[in-house]
């Protein structure tokens, strides 16, 4: 064979962590070469197979404890994922620590401290075991869409150096009677076999209140199956559930989770930090970051990121950016009407005097006339005339700058 050295290298690489199916194919190739009289090539593959057998015999068992004390086999990129029997669709996605975005999610200090305690419990597993206690193995993360729940779950997995078996529970639902419960069982059996974190996203898709008169008996059986599998997994591995609709969850579901962590919408200071984080590498003036934070009151981190993207596009495409940030905010509010509160939208598109007054008088924003001029593309004297004489604190140096 002209290119046998390449084939030989491929076989050697494949046998380094071979599944039974892979080994079978290498054996078939060896036997086919032997039948064709290519004894040298056949012998080379025999040597690769023999070496793989010896390596397997002396290697430590793959069933071992990882740094975070998860038990089971080591999950690899070649591990086949279970599929729905009717559609052949994969029941889960797998994310390895190296694939997960670096950096901790941005939350306020209280939430951040609570998250760190979860990680620290696992980092001190041995010390806790000596006191006959164990780290929390179940965590339900809930909050509005865009608050960073899924990113948080993946970051926890990265800190624990464990792969994530991620499943959107609505993807397990089948129109075939009994298939949904079977999919749940197969998924949990798969997760329980490996060292991993099981991430159950969109938890409310299945874990609905069982006495809901709109639900048929099949859903009630599915919820019972989910409860039983959660109970069985408690002593096996770490499970994280995520939901945007906590009120839809069955009370029995809540009782299965030791940690119940709500992710709130960010406050003014955190919104400013989030805006600065997503603004990189653009160096936006602090006055711009403060106004973005003010106008995004009641929004999530994902919505702030979307606004910052609009800002960066304007920064990139406009050579003359003197028109000010307010025009950029109006552009964003027009294209994303649901992402800005009604009161803020009214100020943006209403009388400039009312907008300037609101920015000047808000104690959190703390804008001077110079600040208002910068974000509106006007000079300080023009802003002062716009506000009019005799307005509150209009001639005060500590307010107007």
Automatic annotation (TrEMBL):
Organism annotation: Lichenibacterium minor
Task: Spell out the Pfam families in the cross-references.
Answer: AAA (PF00004)
Residue spans of biased composition, Polar residues class: 391-401
AAA+ ATPase domain span: 135-267
Q: Which domain of life is it from?
A: Bacteria
Record InterPro entries? 26S_Proteasome_ATPase (IPR050221), AAA+_ATPase (IPR003593), ATPase_AAA_core (IPR003959), P-loop_NTPase (IPR027417)
Cell division as a keyword of this entry, yes or no, is: no
| Taxonomic lineage | Bacteria, Pseudomonadati, Pseudomonadota, Alphaproteobacteria, Hyphomicrobiales
Q: Which molecular function terms from Gene Ontology are attached?
A: ATP binding; ATP hydrolysis activity
* Record's protein name: ATP-binding protein
Q: Where is this region: Disordered?
A: 378-401
Per UniProt, the keywords (alphabetical) are: ATP-binding, Nucleotide-binding
UniProt lists the family membership as follows: Belongs to the AAA ATPase family.
């Amino acid at each position: 064979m002209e290119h046998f050295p390449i084939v030989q290298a491929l076989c050697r690489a494949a046998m380094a962590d071979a599944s039974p199916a892979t080994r079978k194919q290498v054996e078939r190739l060896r036997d086919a070469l032997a039948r064709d009289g290519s004894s040298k090539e056949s012998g080379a593959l025999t040597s690769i197979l023999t070496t793989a057998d010896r390596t397997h015999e002396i290697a430590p068992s793959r069933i071992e404890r990882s740094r975070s004390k998860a038990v089971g086999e080591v999950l690899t990129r070649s591990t086949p994922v279970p599929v729905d029997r009717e559609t052949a669709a994969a029941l889960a996605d797998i994310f390895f620590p190296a694939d997960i975005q670096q950096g901790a999610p941005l939350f306020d200090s209280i939430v951040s401290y609570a998250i760190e305690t979860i990680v620290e419990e696992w980092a001190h597993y041995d010390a806790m075991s000596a006191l006959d206690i164990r780290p929390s193995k179940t965590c339900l993360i809930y909050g509005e869409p865009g608050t960073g729940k899924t990113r948080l779950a993946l970051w926890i997995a990265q800190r624990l150096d464990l792969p994530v078996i991620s499943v959107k529970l609505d993807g397990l639902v089948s129109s075939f009677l009994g298939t949904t419960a079977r999919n749940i069982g197969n998924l949990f059996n798969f997760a329980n076999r490996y060292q991993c974190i099981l991430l159950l996203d969109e938890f409310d898709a299945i874990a609905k209140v069982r006495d809901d008169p709109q639900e048929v008996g099949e859903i009630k059986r599915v919820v019972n199956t989910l409860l039983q599998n959660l109970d069985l997994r408690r002593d096996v591995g770490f499970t994280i559930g995520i939901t945007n609709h906590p009120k839809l969850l069955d009370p029995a579901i809540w009782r299965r989770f030791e940690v119940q962590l709500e992710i709130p919408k960010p406050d003014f200071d955190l919104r400013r930090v989030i805006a600065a984080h997503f603004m990189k590498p653009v160096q936006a003036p602090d006055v711009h970051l403060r106004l973005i934070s003010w106008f995004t009151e009641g929004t999530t981190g994902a919505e702030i990121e979307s606004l910052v993207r609009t800002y960066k596009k304007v920064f990139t495409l406009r050579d003359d950016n003197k028109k000010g940030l307010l025009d950029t905010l109006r552009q964003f509010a027009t294209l994303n009407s649901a992402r800005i509160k009604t009161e803020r939208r009214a100020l943006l598109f209403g009388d400039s005097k009312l907008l300037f007054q609101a920015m000047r008088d808000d104690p959190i924003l703390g804008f001077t006339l110079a600040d208002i001029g910068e974000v509106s593309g006007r000079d300080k004297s023009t802003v002062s005339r716009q506000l009019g004489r005799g307005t509150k604190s209009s001639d005060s140096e500590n307010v107007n700058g």
